[in-house]
Amino acid sequence: MYPQDCRYTKDHEWVRVQGDQGTVGITDYAQKQLGDVVYLELPELGRSLKAHETFGTVESVKAVSELFAPVSGQVLEVNSALLAKPERINGDPHGEAWMIRVRLADPSQLAGLMDAAAYQAYVDSEAK
Amino acid sequence: MANTSGTLRKTALNAAHRALGAKMVPFGGWDMPVEYSGLIAEHLRVRQQAGLFDVSHMGEFEVVGPGALAFLQRVTCNNVAKLSDGQAQYSALPMPSGAPVDDVIVLRRSGEHYLLVVNASNIEKDFDWLSAQAPQGCELRNLSDDYALLALQGPKSQSILQRLTRFDLPGLKYYHFAEAEVDGHSVLVSRTGYTGEDGFEVFVAPGGAEALWNSLLETGREDGLLPAGLGARDTLRLEARMCLYGNDMDESTSLVEAGLGWIVSLDEAKGDFIGKRVLEPQKKSGTSRKLAGFEVVGRGIARHGYPVYAGGDPSGSVTSGSFAPFLQKSIGLCYLPTSQLAVGTEFEVDIRGRRVAARVVPTPFYKRSQ
Q1: Lower CB count within 10 Å: N or C terminus of chain A?
Q2: What is the CATH number of the domain that holds B154?
Q3: What per-residue confidence (pLDDT) applies to A1?
Q4: Do B39 and A38 touch (CB under 8 A)?
Q5: B230 and B192 fall within a common domain
Q6: SS3 A98
Q7: Inter-chain contact A39–B323, Cβ cutoff 8 Å?
């Protein structure tokens, strides 16, 4: 169910790697937990992120949730269309609602993340 | 029903909520639905068509006897003598300080028979408080477990409910109630609510609640009726500038400071009541601070507990704040010094470390068109 070409964190972020770059967003499980998303804060271009560092916040009507960088890297692009329409996170969390694209500082970090099957199992156990 | 096990209490509709796929949360010791199809969808549906809420967790007390009116005049702030049979009023139980123990609705069934509807989180506190005020010539009974409560709210609520009862609903005025037979159940129907829309609160025996809930959803389908949860209930009441006890007022805020001077009656017929000594001068001369409505001018959502700075100085915190789904903006309530209350006055809210501009606006933020 979760895209095979991504890696996943325990905080429900996904990263899709293409060459030395990674695109980051939050998962379908995360958007369901949040409810209707109404506000999003994302980092500035050029910012250097360390893995596990907060890179923004996503807010639903009822809750504020921090966004944690799955990998270290420099922010190359920010999805500004998403900033204007954060509700897309509920509609297409794995596609249209990508949040940032980074240049990976250390591709070896990917090995420490879950693949789609492991993430599915993780989510299933969280739901219990 | 004492809850000693630490598990959450359930209303008669718990299974129905779960069957509808509701997202359930603990609320005041109860297992309650926060949303079903989505908070924003439910909120908009109530404003535009109708939504159905389970508020059975709320409390109901009965005050019966020849001394009932005198007792209620003493322990509430509004004038109970104004009520005729079948009429209700918004009120509060004041402390000597003028701060409320709770806000309540008082319903007069007859001159010697009243019903009080109280907040779910305050049932025990309110009952203990009222018992301690030594009711004379009347009996105070906690009937909370004898009632389930369904709130049908929205412009379509009358046409939906009318299909299930022969009782003439157009003849039932706002803040009036009546005994009626709805879908074969003997109920109380009250034209009251916590959303700022037209609507009805239906008091039914818990044993009949699920059948009535299902009948309402079934018959309401053609009008777009949706089940709605506590999430939408909170955003709806905020847009209508209705206070939430525990957030916007508590035992440290006087009723006048909370903007509820309009339910504090100084009428001669009302007589003396707990807290009058403090509330009367406050009504007449004002208070140093007051609950104000605001809109966020900058970017962000101001939430409960976020620090407020008025004129550069700390001024408490946001009491209630949210993104308002119908108004499509961030709104909230906070206590401001009297000098900073004029509509248009700008101040700041600290949103997780960032000072964001906010502006005092008139309330209610939303008012339904008649």
Answers
A1: C
A2: 3.30.1360.120
A3: 85
A4: no
A5: yes
A6: coil
A7: yes
pTM for this structure?
0.94
Identify all chain B residues contacting A63, using CB atoms and an 8 Å cutoff: none
Contact A35 B38 (CB under 8 A): yes
Interface confidence, given as ipTM, is 0.89
Please give the pLDDT value at position A14. Answer: 98
pLDDT at B370: 67
- Summarize pLDDT for B168-216 with one digit per residue, the tens: 999 999 999 999 999 999 999 999 999 999 999 999 999 999 999 999 9
Residue numbers of the domain that contains B331? 288-370
Count how many domains chain B has.
3
Architecture in CATH of A6-126: Beta Barrel (2.40)
pLDDT tops 90 at residue B43: yes
**Pair (B212, B228) in one structural domain:** yes
Both tokens of B291, joined, read 């609950």
**B68: in domain:** yes
Let me know whether B235 and B155 are in one domain: yes
Tell me the residues of B at the A interface, defined by beta carbons under 8 Å apart: 23, 34-35, 38-41, 231, 235, 300-301, 303, 322-323, 325, 352
